[in-house]
Amino acid sequence: MTQRVVVVGGGIAGLAAAHRLHSLRPDVEVVLLDQRERPGGKLATGVLAGGPVERGAESFLMGAPEGGPSAAVRLAGEVGLGASIVHPTAARAAVAVDGVLRDLPAGTLMGIPIQAPDSVLDEPTRSPLLAPGADVTVGALVRPRRGDAVVDQVVEPLLGGVYAGRADRLSLRMALPALASAAEGSHTLTEALRAAVAASRRTPGAPVFGTVEGGMSRLVDAVAAALPDVRCGVTVRALRRHGAGWRLTLGSTRDAAALDADAVVLAVPARPAQRLLEGVEGADPVPLEYASVALVALALPATKVPDLSGFLVPATEGLAVKAVTFFDRKWAHLRRPGVTLLRASVGRHGDEAQLQRTDDALVGVVRAEVARLIGVDALPEELDRGVYRWGGALPQYTPHHADRVAALRAALAAHPPIAVAGAAYDGVGIPACITSGRAAADTVLARLSA
């Protein structure tokens, strides 16, 4: 009898899991279920002023931490899009400090200066900075050894661009795993930073980021087209053990349907995963908060803007905007005559009130704050605009998150083949989610084979 694996969740982690399952075991029936009308999750390309604009994630890392191409680059190649990867221009980025745009400092790791400034002490500790397996917040490690200004004005804005989170709440092991590992054998932060940089296997001079020409939706569509059974608009309401496998309850309570599976991959956020795992003995939930964000894209008539790829805005500036990207400066393939493209990000963890505005009000705030930061009285009236809201989009990893995930996975190993995948467990970023999905596929396939 043909074995069936059901993947719940059609974001990039679920797509990657289903793709690996089908690639490694074409004899296994792979079914991908997603409650949305299209797969892809936060990878979605829209149209602005007649051209593509990303409604969510805009790029991915080109290199893997262990060396070689990242999981995103490998997946793009596997679905025929390797030649469509393009890279950003050499335009520099800036950070707003006291209302002035300043270049991001060089010689840092996630904004942390490798060399301690004269104003702070980086005294050697008697034992390593971090005990094996221990975890702290990024702020707890960095503030005493680099000062509040470094954390508030540079480190936190960079973390905010990735997580929309706070340095004093985010887990060091999840946000900066290479630094956490280096800290286990280092007695100063300078030593740990140098060790983390030395351990990097990125090829010097190689592009750091890439994207797919034509938009991230091309990657989603290509992966989905390679799968045998993708069902959108399907809600999974319940999951329970059934014989040697699982039974999923689909659809509404009035029109419920059952789907049996030999194995399941849950590639959904923490809360829906927790709901589905309620009846699975020992599967304690992984407590996880999420930050919401809104992206405001503006297509302006040709406008003079700073010669930057974009800039970050620390929370200490007291503004709603936390980051701005000048798309036609950053990405040469997006340039079009007579049009200036920019996209602003609004929303930090704990500051969701900024997102309670209407779309019109949110655009107004973005226009006013961007104009102020680039030094003009007002932006010209836009040719087109888009407001893209992502409620509960970015997980906020607190210290020891990885330990809680490991405990959940150990509990799941006592049941018929089942695995969890995605940003809730293994980190944000497209390559991290793809790697997580592939690992989940490997886990259930190994169990099926056994």
Describe this protein's structure.
The structure is a single chain. By secondary structure, this protein is of the alpha+beta class. Among the domains are: 4-40 and 214-287 and 397-449, 3-Layer(bba) Sandwich (FAD/NAD(P)-binding domain), CATH 3.50.50.60; 105-199, protoporphyrinogen ix oxidase, domain 3. The protein is built from 14 helices and 22 strands. The strands form six sheets. It has a seven-stranded mixed beta sheet with strand order 8-7-18-19-20-17-21. A hairpin with a 2-residue loop joins strand 7 and strand 8 (100-103). The longest helix has 20 residues, at 430-449. The two termini are 16 Å apart. The mean pLDDT is 95. Pathway: Porphyrin-containing compound metabolism; protoheme biosynthesis. Its main location: cytoplasm.
Characteristic key phrases:
5-stranded parallel beta sheet, single chain, 450 residues, alpha+beta, protoporphyrinogen ix oxidase, domain 3, globular, 25% strand, FAD/NAD(P)-binding domain
Number of strands: 22
From the N-terminal CA to the C-terminal CA, the straight-line distance is 16 Å
Question: Percent of residues in helical segments?
Answer: 25-40%
Q: What's the mean pLDDT score?
A: 95
Strand order across the largest sheet: 8-7-18-19-20-17-21
Number of helices: 14
Task: Estimate what percentage of residues fall within beta strands.
Answer: 15-25%
CATH uppermost class of the domain at 4-40 and 214-287 and 397-449: Alpha Beta
Overall radius of gyration: 23 Å
Global structural class: alpha+beta
CATH superfamily of the domain at 4-40 and 214-287 and 397-449: FAD/NAD(P)-binding domain
Name the poorly predicted regions: none
The CATH topology of the domain at 4-40 and 214-287 and 397-449 comes to: FAD/NAD(P)-binding domain
Function: Involved in coproporphyrin-dependent heme b biosynthesis. Catalyzes the oxidation of coproporphyrinogen III to coproporphyrin III.
Family: Belongs to the protoporphyrinogen/coproporphyrinogen oxidase family. Coproporphyrinogen III oxidase subfamily.
EC number: 1.3.3.15
Pathway: Porphyrin-containing compound metabolism; protoheme biosynthesis
